UniProtKB/TrEMBL annotation:
This is FAD-dependent pyridine nucleotide-disulfide oxidoreductase. The lineage of its organism: Bacteria, Bacillati, Bacillota, Bacilli, Bacillales. Residues 2-113 form the FAD/NAD(P)-binding domain. Signal peptide: none annotated. GO terms for molecular function: oxidoreductase activity. It comes from Bacillus selenitireducens (strain ATCC 700615 / DSM 15326 / MLS10). PANTHER family: THIOREDOXIN REDUCTASE 1-RELATED-RELATED. Its cofactor is FAD.
Length: 186
């Protein structure tokens, strides 16, 4: 049983994964390698003067793996409710987590096909998004969403930040108290 399963390894998913794994949570990231960020050249991400989308995505993967997050290639076909968490069904098997975070970018189909509430997107070119509460929770218990699929502005700094924000909410729920991750200058 994972503490957190994340669907999607773009800026939202990998940012969430690095926070969760760094907090000591058993974290699995399932990804179909279709990140729109891999088409981008980015000059508006705070702290990076300029960076290619592929480099941003691969650096994010390295960061989350450094803290112990597992990465598996593959497509999630369905999310199912479970007694004490939720399940992610893939072509290669089913994975169970206490929480699941959808970070599926422009694709809200897996949420919709799983019976999770979706709505019309309000950002340019984004048709459907997962209907989330302010803290990132969806209509299915223990399932959350972050980034583009949660109707956030389609920019890497925003989606990465939202992935971190929702991960902090999930970590806080697992810990039973608000979580803060501050390292001191070395
Ligand atoms: C051409 C282009 C240029 C851009 N330029 C900029 C720019 O200059 N500055 C800027 O800030 N932003 C830019 N962006 C936007 C930026 O890439 C996105 O806003 C943001 O990074 C999206 O992050 P995300 O994590 O929400 O989604 P994504 O990066 O799309 O990641 C979603 C991930 O979820 C995975 N996934 C989806 N469904 C499933 C499933 N069922 N099972 C498993 N995995 C799944 C996908 O494979 C993907 O890896 C640009 C985008 C494009 C297309």
């Amino acid at each position: 049983m994972y503490d957190l399963i994340i669907v999607g390894a773009g800026p939202a998913g990998a940012s969430a994964a690095l926070f969760a794994a760094k907090a000591g949570k058993k974290t699995l990231v399932l990804d179909s390698d279709q990140s729109i960020t891999k088409k981008a050249w980015v000059e508006n991400h705070y702290g990076a003067k300029d960076i290619s989308g592929p480099d941003l995505v691969s650096t994010g993967l390295e960061q989350m793996k450094k803290f112990g997050a597992e990465h598996k290639a593959g497509k999630v076909t369905k999310i199912e409710a479970a007694a004490d968490g939720a399940k992610a069904v893939t072509e290669d098997g089913t994975f169970e987590g206490k929480h699941i975070l959808l970070a599926t970018g422009m694709m809200a189909n897996v949420a919709e096909e799983s019976g999770i509430a979706v709505k019309e997107g309000s950002e340019p070119k984004i048709q459907k998004v997962v209907d989330v509460k302010d803290n990132g929770e969806t209509s299915m218990a223990n399932v959350w969403a972050a980034g583009t699929c949660a109707n956030k502005s389609v920019h890497t700094i925003v989606t990465a930040g939202h992935g971190a924000e929702v991960a902090i909410n999930i970590i806080s729920e697992l810990n039973g108290e608000r979580y803060v991750d501050h390292d001191i200058l070395k």
